[in-house]
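Reposting from the mailing list since nobody answered there.

I have sequence plus structure tokens for a pair of proteins and want to know whether others read the tokens the same way I do. The first protein:
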Amino acid sequence: MPKKKTRKNKKKSKKSFSKEKKSSNFFILPRATQRHILGVISLLLAIIIALSFFEKAGIAGQAIMEALAFLIGKAIFAIPLILVFAALVFFTTRYHKFLGGVFLAILLLAFGISGIISTLYHPETEADKPGGWLGYLITYPFLKFFGLWVTQIITIGVIVIGGLIFWYLLRQPKTEGAETRQLAEEKKKPSLIKKIFTPPQFKVKEIEPATKNYNSPAASPPLTDELGLDLKTKKIPKKAPSAQYQMPSLDLLSSDKEKPTAGDTRINSAIIKKTLENFGIPVEMSEINIGPTVTQYSLKPAEGIKLSKITTLSNDLSLALAAHPIRIEAPIPGKSLVGIEVPNKERAKVRLKDLIADYQFQHALSNLVFCLGRNVSGRAVYGDLTRMPHLLVAGSTGTGKTIFLNSLILSLLYRNGPATLRFILIDPKRVEFTVYQGLPHLLCPVIFDPQRTINALKWLISEMEKRFNILSEEKFRDINGYNEVAFKNGEEPLPYIVLIVDELADLMAARGRDMEAGIVRLAQMARAVGIHLILATQRPSVEVITGLIKANVTSRVTFQVASQVDSRTVLDTAGAEKLLGLGDMLYISAETVKPKRIQGAYISEKEVRKVVEHIKEQALKIPEVAEKIEEGVLENHLAQDLKKSLEGEPAEGGFESFYDTGEGEDPLYEEAKRVVIEARKASASLLQRRLRIGYARAARLIDMLEEKGVVGPGEGAKPREILFKSEEENSSVDDDWEKV
């Protein structure tokens, strides 16, 4: 029984304690009110002590007077003034934590004054202590070891320190909130260890002016590429057809004139930090990079914080910053930081002229370097087709795909003449690439028809095989080594061939099987012989970008897409649905595992026409080049093959399908014909069982038998009719005729 009572008593005591806790919250006062109350108390103490000097404070005042006189002696007369200073601090200070400083200043002034009184007035007897016992005890060791003068200097220093504390606490800031910001900045100042292990804070990197005297000779000296050619004039041997070909001038293009506006970056940085701290994620803000489209705020989370907690707060950060959409990059490649990309208030266009005139582009070794744009830090980004070696471009309508293709083509035109680079342009929409008609770099006129596209792919495959034979005979590993020797010997080089498709979805809908087979065949092998593919589509679905195409085209550029599904189809990751359009893109390649955000270069149609017309005028001045353009270019005459395909004739080489090279060339055709005639039925499963082959080959054999007239066409579930009779049936018919 007593144990139960004790337990009940404990429970009651816990309940009463919790009630006391709850009731104590009722008396909590604001900090300003607490400071004012302390100020009033210090003023009352000062008045009481002052009245006790005149014996008008009663018994309590007399007791306080005797106690203070015993402790600090004649320094008691300075106590009311000190308490008045303390009251002023309580009423006027802007600091949150100051009580310790006030009490320290009171003690220092009281001890300092009592100490200096003890040294100035020597007592007549040992019982007399003008500075009180505290002054005597404080000054006695110093008088014994240092003497009178040093002791007085020390006590004066103590008084000065106490006065400085009061002066600092009473000093008013020039503007409201300046002191609090100063204290906050002092708190943010890292220690020596933090300076070593944490990145610097608030280093704003703005875009440097991209146009810095590009037309001056010092900024653009004559440079040479990996083939030993002058990038300005392409001075190649006289035997080459483009010996006098001149590169277009940079004056034909427009330069950057706009600057981005990111808003107040420090306020945005503080909002990001406060928002994350509200969700229990302490972070340290780092550098801020202002790009042409977005501003990247980088931060370092505290130890033990999962990155998934930060990435899931994109909508909350978007609400706090009043900016949409926000993309979070966690972590930033090459840094132990998280990047939050916020759209700028005003975007800046990235012009192609400044990217082409950049030192990095001019000094590139590869001939197939092209301009991608500028990243979130404002730095120029370039791609190289020889490393990619093929490129897939995807994005919704109006997001900048065609402008990107135009900037890519012009970048290559500013580095290569017709002797080193050829284009095959395919434009099912019929309006995007018409401006390039008549360009000397074209192997054939711009292609609009799906059948011509298939013929072009077939010709490229045959050209690829011929080039492989040439390289194997000459014992070269790739086209670069062959061309280097060819230029030295004054021979005709093998030009790079770049196939550009502006809308792949339309071609896949018309001839999907043949398109996929041709693209995959070229993507697998054509890199070494200088044939590269650039495929663009506005419908990034699995029907257009199939698994085989994705597996063989690893370099991809994605503009804004409609949904996260489309983004995952192209990049295998989300993020493209949060882009801003108008050239804002994500770039991924075999060299960059995580997508890079880039603002693509803008090129107007007027600039494209100027450059193309300039190149046409330069080319027509050279008789050899003009003749080559009229003849159809290259020894295989692709233009003639396309013309024959329009007339209904098969292209040279007799290609009917990417899967076989001819109807009767399959070694199992005769065997399949015999099996079908003997069994008096035709099906792919029958040929699979009898000939032990796969379904694809069996189906092709059935199609070949139908075209030869051996079997009839398929009629749904009904079996095919056997039209060809066996030898026994033929002989029986002959015997019956003879008998009659």
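The second protein, same order (residues first, tokens after):
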Amino acid sequence: MKKFVISALALLTTVIAAAQTMNVQVGNVVFQFPASQAGDMTYSNGGQTMTIMGRSFTVSDITKSYVDDTAFSDSTVQVVYNGSQATVYVAGNVAAYVEPTVSGAHVSIAQSSDVSASTCGEITYQLSGSSTDGDFYLSGKFKATVQLCGLDLTSACSSSDAGGAAINIANSKRIQLSVKKGTTNSLSDYAGGSQKACLYSKGQLQLQGNGTLNVVGNNNHAVKSASYITVKNLTLNVTSAVGDGINCEEYFLMKSGTVSVSGVGDDGLQCDYGDETALTGVTTDHEDEDTGNMYFEGGVLTVNVTATAAKGVKAAGDIAISDGTYNVTTTGNGEYDSDEQDAKGACGIKTDNDMTISGGTLTLKSTGSGGKCLKADGTLTVSGGSIDATATGSVYMYSSSITASPKAIKAGTKAAKSSSRETAPGGNWGGGGNRPGGGGSSDYNNYDYTGGLVVTGGTINAKSSSHEAIESKGTINISAGFVYAESNDDAINSASDFTITGGYVMGNSSGNDGLDANGDFYIKGGYVVAVASSSPEVGIDANSEAQKKLTISGGYVVAIGGLESGSTTTGMSTKSASVSKGRWYTLSSGGTAALLFKTPTNSQMPSSATICAPSTPSLSTASTPSAATFWNGYGATF
């Protein structure tokens, strides 16, 4: 038999020049050598070993060999799944550099450490077909591309190299996972495996292409990289996961494409530090970056999370949003965090550090107890884009002293300087006037305030049905843009100083102060409308109990419910006025119309107001405007 095989192979050397491809099959692996590249076949070990293009075969292992006109591309490895079986096709120029192992539909490929730019270059692994009991495992030390070309793959065991993952890439280098245009691909992993994700990459994972990829994570995460993840062009749907929908370390970057995450048991998207002890900071083109940062530069992201205290998007580092459309909804209730001994709520977009929003459209909703829509523990800077944030949950109360209150937007951090504590349960009320530990708190100087909210442009519409719509545990500085906040607590509250130098700001409260500062409050410019509930609440409040003051030195101001007692004005004219519910008014300065606004219809709104302008202020009723509106319909341009 051996003589026959050798003779047959020898015969092939005489005809291969007239054919396109010589195929050498070993089990379920077919090596494809083009006639133009094959050259001489050499035999050694007494004719027991045959070598073609650097690939050696034990002749007795060859299932068959044949010549045909099959067309294939150099530097490619094709994996075709067909039910309980898979077949691997290896291009001749990389045959010496890959070692495929096939058991049923379980495919494991070891990419040689000799693969480099100077040998065969980057290899592309093309996966297609379907199997309900298959997987793909790849190891190596040089970057590679994995292309999905119409793949439906489900792992049904954990005994293979993939460990229960549908795709497990142990190569620690950059992996380009490309979804071929016009194809729909689905991955599902084994529920009892050891895998970290259904789609896992030890190295950098670049998700791209113009096709669709659906992923289910039955054991832990749906998609995970132990390095960074980038997203471009493709449609990625995570329909369920036991853990996070998408999880990575180092950084996350979404440039374009459509990503949808739902049905997860933890966070939607999470990025952590790869090595917190050796953080790089932001680098040029993110080269070798390890920051825990998340960058959103375009595309459409839709996240719906239901788990207790889950985050739609969570970063250990910074978050930067410059373009794109983002729809994030959380419905889970709050919970007690035993590690931090504090109550935590769900949150739409959360960062442990700073967040910058310079563009894009954000629609954020939180319905669970203690939930928040947008939260930055550092500084939240808004310079562009549009934010619509609505929190409708109630307070989560673990105990009378440990609570989490819902907010549409929260920024900054407040920490006690000593063992002193606020009188509020858990220190979480942070409101004003008639709430414990609020704007009237006299222990202001016992705390350090870091970070906060900076608005230099863009549009913010924030609503909370239970607590502050916008709260800063540091300072608030608004110099431009449109800001509207609505709540039955303080509409906007700063735990420290609050400064407005420009822009359009409206705080609409049906149960507390319209705008409140636990520190000093400065209005130096801009257009401001503040609506409070009935006395003793005021439209604009400062912490006079801690000898802080409200100072107005510029801009155009309407404070329905009045100003904090002891407030001062510099270079401004002030006047009392009366207003009715649900009416449009024009605020004029020296006879010149400056601002067109509408009063709300809430039953707690008082009829008295204080108006301020650079020159003799006055209020007059106005007709419903036909011009463009802002402030959720309560303001309009002339």
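Reply #1 (J.P.):
I read it the same way you do. Confidence is low (pLDDT under 50) at residues 1-8, 419-440.
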